[in-house]
Amino acid sequence: MRKKALIITYYWPPAGGPGVQRWLKFVKYLPDFNIEPVVFIPENPNYALIDETLTDDVSKDVAILKLPIKEPYKLARFLSKKKSNTISKGIISDEQTQSLTERIMLYIRGNFFIPDARKHWVAPSVKFLSEYIKRENIETIITTGPPHSLHLIGIQLKENLKVKWIADFRDPWTTIGYHKKLKLSKRSRKKHLFLEKSVLNSANQIIVTSFVTKDEFSKITSKPIEVITNGYDYESVAPVVLDSKFSLSHIGSLLSKRNPKVLWKALSDLIKEEPNFSTDLQINFVGSISNEVLESLEKHDLTSYISNVGYVSHKEALKYQKKSQVLLLIEINSKETKGIIPGKLFEYMISNRPIIALGPKGSDVEKIVKDTNTGNYFSYDDYTLLKTTILSHYKAYKNEALQSFPIGLQKYSRKKLTESLSKLI
C-alpha cells in the first residue's frame, strides 16, 4: 500500500517561473517510489508569471486540494500594476531610483505582511487541512517556501495533529538578497528571525537546495537538514539548429543588482579589438530585465546587439538554451547569494552548450559548474580571464567547434533527486 504525503505549496501550474517546477517534478516521480502525493494549493492565486504548458506534467491521478486565498498583491495593483508585479517577482529597484509609490509598497510589504503577503491563508488552511488529514490518515506533510508563510501552516498542523512535518526551503528566509530591501523596522526584523527559528526547530526534517543554506541553518537548529538540489528533467524538445550568430543567452530574470558590468566591459572591448566580433555578436535576454541593467548595457554601447525576448514558456526557454552558442548564468555579487543555485543551471548543464557563470567567490554554483565540467565560473573582478574565455569561445564558434563536455550529471536528474526525497518521507 502506498504511503500518502500531503504537499502544501503556493506555486503550481499554470504558474510559470522556476518556483513551480521543483515540486511539480517531485510529484511527477513520487509514485515511482511507492508514495502517493496529495497537493494543496490556493484556488485563486495571483501568479506574476503564467505558463500553461507546465500543466502537461500534472498527472490526472494526482489529488489536488484547493482553498481560496486573499491576495494583497491584487489590491496593490490599484497603486501601481507594474510595481506590484515586479516586487512580487523579487525585482526591486536600487534605493536611489525608487519612486515614492515603490517605497510605500515595500514598507507595507515588509512590515505589515510578515513573513509575506500570503500570511492570511495560514489560519483557513490549518482548519481545512486538519479535517482532511484526520479523515485520510495522512502521516507526512511537506511545506515548501517561499512564500515562507506556508511553513506556518506546517508548524500548526504538526502541533495540533502530531504528523511528521518536512519543511522545504527553495530559497533562504532572512538571508535572501531582497530581504534587506523590504524597509523592515527593528521589530519586524526580529519577528522574521523569530519565525524562521521557530520553523527550523519545529520541523522533523528540513530540506534545502544548497550547501551554503545548510551551513547557515545548522547554526540555528540541530534538526536534520538534507540538501536536495533542483535538477533537470528529460523534456521532449524538437531538434534545434544552433544560432548562426555568436549568441550569449541569459534565461530568467535579471535583477537590478544582477548586473555584471565586468561582462559588459569585456564584450564592449572585444567589439573594438577583435575583427568580425561586432558582426557576429548577439546577446539574448529571455525573461524579465531591470531598467538598471538595460542602462548599463547602453553605457557600454551594447544596445544594438540585444535581443530582448521577454518571458516565454518553459518549453520555449529550453529551445533558446539548446540553440544558443553560450549560456549566461549571472548572480548578485554578495555573500548572501553564495547559496543560491538557480534551477536553470541544471537545464543549462544538459543543453550541451558551454556556460559562463558570474557570481561571488566560493558559491555552490561555482562548485557544481567546475565538478560537472559544464563551463567556467568568474567572480566580478575576473575581467582578464573572463575576456580571454569569451574570445576562446568565439574562436571555437568560428571553427564550428564550440560545445560542452559535461561529466557526472545523472545525480541531478529529477527522478534521482525524487528518490532521495522519498527516503525522507
Automatic annotation (TrEMBL):
SUPFAM superfamilies: UDP-Glycosyltransferase/glycogen phosphorylase (SSF53756)
UniProt key word Transferase: yes
Entry coiled-coil feature ranges: none
InterPro entries to which the protein is assigned, alphabetical: Glyco_trans_4-like_N
Domain Glycosyltransferase subfamily 4-like N-terminal: 106-235
MF (Gene Ontology): glycosyltransferase activity
Key words of the record: Transferase
Biological process, per Gene Ontology: lipopolysaccharide biosynthetic process
Keyword Phosphoprotein listed: no
PANTHER family per record: GLYCOSYLTRANSFERASE WBBK-RELATED
Name this polypeptide is given: Glycosyl transferase family 4
